[in-house]
Design goal:
Elements: E1 5-8, E2 11-14, E3 18-20, E4 28-35, H1 39-47, E5 55-61, E6 68-72, E7 75-79, H2 81-85, E8 87-94
Antiparallel strand pairs: 1-2, 3-8, 4-5, 4-8, 5-6, 6-7
Length: 97
């Protein structure tokens, strides 16, 4: 049996360790490990504070193809599902408050 691996930022990770923000469970936290897309898309996310290494918490996924709401550095941000699908994270689990 073979395990699929991804090379992200010079580090190999199994595909079970990495999840898109779209598919991460609400309430979970993750560290951004990769943003797939062009320089314009990456610049837009960077202007929102979403960049490699940042810790984000997924708060909600609104129904009927609504936005994904995340918390980043104490700020809530709503982003589209297509954008969320291009943000890859290493899951850290639920937030402990």
């Amino acid at each position: 049996m073979y395990m699929s691996c991804l090379k992200i930022g010079g580090e190999y990770m199994s595909d079970k360790e990495v999840v898109s923000l779209l598919h991460m469970k609400s309430g979970s936290r993750g560290q951004v490990v990769e943003i797939t897309g062009g320089i314009g898309f990456q610049s837009h996310l960077d202007s929102l504070g979403i960049r490699r290494g940042k810790i984000v918490q997924k708060l909600a996924a609104h129904p009927l193809r609504g936005p994904i709401v995340i918390e980043l550095d104490g700020t809530r941000i709503a982003i589209g599902r297509r954008m969320a699908n291009r943000i890859l994270l290493k899951e850290l689990g639920a937030n402990r408050t």
